[in-house]
Amino acid sequence: MVTRPAAVACAVVAAAGALGACRPNLDETVALITGPTVLAVQLDPPEVDPSASPPTTVTLKTLFVGPAGDIDNAPIEWAFCNAREPLAELGPVNNACLQASGSQFVPIGTGIDVTDDAGVPVIACNQFGPDVPMPMMGQPPGRPVDPDSTGGYYQPERFIAPGNGADSIGIAEERIACGLSTATPDQVIQFGAEYHFNANPVVQSLSVVSSTGSAGPALVTDAMGQTNPVSAGQHITFEVAWPTCPLVDTCGDGVCGPDETPSANQTAGALMGNSGSNCPTPLATTCAADCAPTAKGCGGAERYLNLDLTSQCLVDARESIGVAWYATGGAFDDDRTGRTDTDTTTTSDNGWLAPSQAGVVELWVVLRDARGGAGWAEYKLDVQ
Amino acid sequence: MSLRARCLGALGALGVLSTAWTAAAQDSPAPAAPAHVIVPPKLTTFVQAEFPPSEIAAGKGATVVLSIAIDVTGKVVGVTVVESAGPAFDTAAVDAARQFVFEPASVDGKPIPVKITYRYAFTITETLIKKSTADFAGLVRDHATKEPIANVRVAVDTGQETLTDEQGKFSIPDISPGEHGVTLSGETVSTIGTTETFEPSKKLDATYEVDKKHVKSGSDEEEEEIVVTAPRLKKQVVSTEVQATQAAKVPGTQGDVLKVVENLPGVARAAAGSSALVVWGAAPNDTRVYVDGVHVPLLYHGGGFRSILPSAFVRSVELVPGGYGPGFGRGLGGLVSVAMKPLDEEGFHGSLGADVIDASTDVRDKVADNLHVALGVRKSYLDVSLQSVTTENVGSIIPIPRYYDGQARIQYDLAPHESIEVGGLVSSDRIANTLTNPDPALTEQQTTGTDFQRIWAHYDRHMPDGAVVTVVPWFGFNYTTLANAYGPTVTDVNNHSTIMGLRADWHGPLMEHVRGAVGLDAELLSSSLHRDGSIGAPPREGDIYVFGEAPPPQVNADDWKTVIGSLAPYVEGDAAFFDDALHIVPGLRLDPYIISASKVVPAEGETPHVGTTHSVAEVEPRLSVRYAFTPEISVKAAFGIYHQAPQPEDLSAVFGTPTLGLSQAQHYLVGSGFQLTPSLSIETTAFLAEQQELVARSQDQNPLLAHALDQIGIGRAYGTQFLLRQQQIGRFFGWVSYTISRSQRRDAPTIDWRLFDYDQTHVFTALGSYDLGNGFEAGLRFRFSSGYPRTPVTGAYYDTSTNTWEPLFGAHNSIRIPPFASLDARISKKFKFGRVTSLEVYLDVQNVTNHSNPEEIVYNTNYTQRGYITGLPILPVAGARLTW
């Protein structure tokens, strides 16, 4: 395999003992809102089965903002893109999905929030999942699409949103439940019983951390029509919190976890998973309270069942949570913060320097989980 | 040494003549007389005759026979020449004899006058006298056959020179003491320079073994070969110590001989921190590296700071950018062949060196008759030394290479021209760094490791007829590891390989004007690989991406085994015509391959996997022609077909294509050489390399299973390179090299040609080293090269799912990183302690002018701004090396 040099040595002045800077100083921040910007898209539900009958209605909600705050109306064009990405392209989607039009698109609608009753295209698991067409006689089979590290497959959606002077193109991705590409039949049964669709994360609260390190009362969200006073020029540490999801499944805790199934039959099937292999013994309990008729999700870092591609074992995994920070004024210490999948903390902090002049600053906090879910909250800060 | 004349007198027959006696002798017989006591004359005062100056140059003595008349007082009264030895000797003898004083002869106690016969001998004897100059003498002979070479010009930088006689001997008297450059040149030998130390009142007796030009078989000494000193010069000098090579004096190399390869024409400048060797636009993996016939996976440690072999072990390094002969193959690019120094020194020797990057030591000893051993070890500590001068955990942030290497050799001389060596070497590299981010999704980690070990047996025999037999079986392991993490997307690639080979070669004279070579080149590589993680990491040549960009989030995993083997017999001839002016060197290599992968399709559940094996035999003709219009002007041409097996990493059923076959290339070369002076030459070479069946990522929107890679790419590289080279003349040596070239790829018939990722249009190097005297040496090196191609970012789009901006690209590799320019300097001082011990301290400064050289293009988060990562600023490296 021919590779490019992947690392470039930075400047080192060994004799002088000084570490020379080698990266240029570029403006890396995107947290300051200076024009119409799509900050996030929330798909509801965040995960669907393309083969569901009837098709699952999908609602796309856009967080479209400007320097004055939320933009509630905008002609954002939405379309599914059915162009599969060649292996030679290393981006998230086929470059053809970034065109303005073409036969590769299935229009969804126009607007900030759009609803698609037709659901994702039924061929999604063929185009973007592990299902490949049956080979022709004498022809080798096709290559299935590879999942991401969470075992997920995604149907891309392209949007065209108005921007500063020119429209901007972007993508959102709907997680599609297509099953497993390489698994034993028993594992397929277990996965079908114990894998539960993703739920969007929820901003539980945003607080100001005091000098003693404790979080203060939650700020009032913009939906409540109130502002939150802050001092001009003050450096504030914000703390965003999201719900705590159980680390161990307990029936009745309000969350359907990867060790729970909605019925006894499914429990029996799940217990047969990973059998005859070096994989861990499956855990499964029936919990209709949490898992029926639909699995109850958690707005935080959920646990889910995943196929480890190296060991070819079904294992419990946990989502990471990423936090994106935006404001119409001031400056954040970091544009992005978050927690890894192994970090059980359900909060994330970030510093913010308030503007030196009085005024109202819009602030948004967007949460994303590892399986493509998104959620956000908006606040008004009254800089005094 | 001078000649003195010594004159030895010897009394000859004593002839007594007396008038008194004469009369008595003529009478009638007298009655018996009573016995008389006769005492001959006795020389009491001898006078040394002056050896005739006119006769000293002849270097011969002589004997003059005199008749000396002595009176009753013992005084010489007459001298006549009885047997002449020539007027000069006669005169000198007569003048001296006239001054002799005797005790007179006597009869019964009574003094009598006599005449005697006296033999005066003049004899030449050698006497060592202390003189202020030195004498230089020796022998020049063929390294291969040990036959003396006549008419080799031996020139000293004082202006004194001579030609070797029919016995290969030479003599130059009265050379001023100190270090002088010595140059050997001639029609049948390559011009070679070295440095000798002359001591007053001593004679330096040197034997030089050189390779005659027509002796070389296999790859010809044509424009496609660039031989770095000390090339093929082997000498044994009685009273001098081992010499350093020119290569170790090149600025920027820190005394590392093998790093000089980077300064040769046809070699692209490696990016800062890269150890890649890009020759004539070929990928780094396409150029093969050999150490004494043993294939090794790399020439330089990670980061490119050091080569894998210490300079003390290196005799020569040879770069063949292309068009090499049938003795080598399995690569589409060039050939780097490192020859280690034979172990033939008397006594215990070694060296100990250190600088800010690493420390090394080696020892060499003759432990018994015909048995030599050598050991070497080196370890880096740049990560530790940086930690001591910075407050940050620098090593975890910046990819600082950590390496060590070691060598061991045992050579046994079976006969005067037959030896066997058993040796081994180990090499290890580690680079690790972490870039943390408050958002774990942006935290990056990278760890790479490359280890290899080799053991070999090297048998050499030089036949009386000039033939050479070499047999080298070898065995080893390669371990490479790569672990990357970009947020949640990890990549883990491991390759554990066992490799073995056999090289057996005979080359020598077949008939008058014809030499030949026949041999076998075999190699077997068995690999066990694991890879899991992103399907797009690590990036491949030809990938369109931005430095620092997150890899594709799609992941997979695979474990597989491969076996790649080939057994290549070859034959080559070298026919000389027109008094050695024309050489035609045809060659043929038959290279059958076997390529096996353990999985033809990805594993599915518990289904047993099925492997794939295929074999193919390739015929590889090679041809080179050289014609010397005059001893100073020659033209050359070469052609060859080459094949290369796929990399084991590409034979994965998940990440690659298990059924990949061989890639192919054709090399075409033409060139000329001009010997402007005995030590100044210029060589030009034009080249074209065409490649087919290159491996690249599948362009299909719906690729087939186990076909992530396609083998439908083609490539081409063409250009011209120039080398103006001044061999050691007096105190100076240096060269200027320039290559202008273009290297392109076309990954599939459906897409356009693009520049190769390692294309560098212009590569210019000018360097020189000057002996300042008193142990000081100074050197300068200037380098200029075009920047690597890159694909421009023309815009960006937002991925709301991952909260990342993704680049929109323009034409593939349509822009370049700005050019690179650097001036490097080196100064060293050698302190000598006795005849063999020395301490050299040096200061090697790269980028003396602190020129800011862009090494990579980077963008801000949303691709609205672009900047450059710059490479090394001024970098002084101070070091010292003790040699004994």
Considering the chains and any ligands shown, give keywords for the structure.
heterodimer; A: mainly beta; Immunoglobulin-like; 5-stranded antiparallel beta sheet; 4 helices; disordered N terminus; B: 884 residues; mainly beta; TolA/TonB C-terminal domain; 5-stranded mixed beta sheet; 51 strands; 57% strand
Structural class of chain A: mainly beta
Strand content of chain B: over 45%
Would you identify the regions of chain B where 5 or more consecutive residues have pLDDT less than 50?
1-31, 214-245
Profile the largest sheet of chain B.
22 strands, antiparallel, barrel
Helical content of chain B (DSSP H or I, runs of 4+): under 10%
Q: And the CATH topology of the domain at 6-127 in chain B? A: TolA/TonB C-terminal domain
Mean pLDDT of chain B: 85
**What is the total number of structural domains of chain A?**
2
The neighbouring-strand order within the major sheet of chain A is: 4-11-10-7-8
Largest sheet features of chain A: 5 strands, mixed
**Gyration radius over CA of chain A:** 23 Å
Number of strands of chain A: 25
Output the helix-strand order of chain A.
Answer: EEEEEEEEEHEEHEEEEEHEHEEEEEEEE
Helix content of chain A: under 10%
Q: Low-confidence parts of chain A lasting 5 or more residues at pLDDT below 50?
A: 1-21
Task: Give an overview of the whole structure.
The complex is a heterodimer of chains A (384) and B (884). Chain A is built from four helices and 25 strands. Chain A has 384 residues and is mainly beta. Chain A has two domains: 1-179, no CATH class; 182-247 and 298-384, Sandwich (Immunoglobulin-like), CATH 2.60.40. Chain A is globular and about 70 Å long. Mean pLDDT of chain A is 89; it is low at 1-21. By secondary structure, chain B is mainly β. Chain B has five helices and 51 strands. In chain B, a hairpin with an 8-residue loop joins strand 27 and strand 28 (444-462). Among the domains of chain B are: 6-127, 2-Layer Sandwich (TolA/TonB C-terminal domain); 130-226, Carboxypeptidase-like, regulatory domain (Immunoglobulin-like); 240-335; 347-438, no CATH class. Mean pLDDT of chain B is 85; it is low at 1-31 and 214-245. Chain B has a 22-stranded antiparallel β-barrel. The interface between A and B is large, with 95 and 113 residues.
